[in-house]
Amino acid sequence: MKTSRRTAKRVGWAAALATGLLATSVGTAVAAPSSVHTAATAPAQTAVNCAYPYVCLFKNGSRIGQFQDVTSGFQSLPSRPVGTSSSPIVVTNTRHDDVAYIRYASGTTVCLPPEYTTSLTGTLTGIRISSSATC
Phi and psi for 107 in degrees, rounded to 5? Predict the structure, then answer.
């Protein structure tokens, strides 16, 4: 079976998310305190409800936000959604070549690679879509 570079990158990101370490745009790693928030792979069916070229946020299966504009700064999430272990915020990045940064109330940010879905816990306060193809 032939493995593409993109597949290898996704496997690397899945491993990084599973351990709670996420690379930021400057290449430094941010450890996600487990008591504040964590990241894990989300159900694949959520991605079906988020059309390209959007980054969508879901809570309990309902879309609570969708964003498509590339911005130089963070767009505020006025609702400040809170994900818990029993009811996480699922974030889906359907964009093919753009990353999405999600900001927590603590100021910590996580980066979602293109075509990626994850579950987040904690209070989310902002989103920024970057034209960069890598985190």
Answer: 95, -15
Q: What is the Cα Rg of the chain in Å?
A: 14
Residue 43 and residue 74: Cα distance in Å, rounded? 26
Torsion sign across C-alpha atoms 86, 91, 94, 100 = negative
- CA–CA separation, 87 vs 28, rounded Å? 29
Query: What is the 3 state secondary structure string of the chain?
Result: CCCCHHHHHHHHHHHHHHHCEEECCCCCEEECCCCCCCEEECCCHHHHCCCCCCEEEEECCEEEEEECCECCCCEECCCCCEECCCCCEEEEECCCCCEEEEEECCCCEEEECCCEEEEECEEEEEEEEECCCCC
Query: Per-residue pLDDT tens for 116-126?
Result: 999 999 999 99
Cα separation, 66 vs 55, whole angstroms: 6
Residue at 30: amino acid letter: V
pLDDT digits (tens, 9 = 90+) for 27-40: 323 333 333 333 44
Q: What is the pLDDT of residue 12?
A: 44
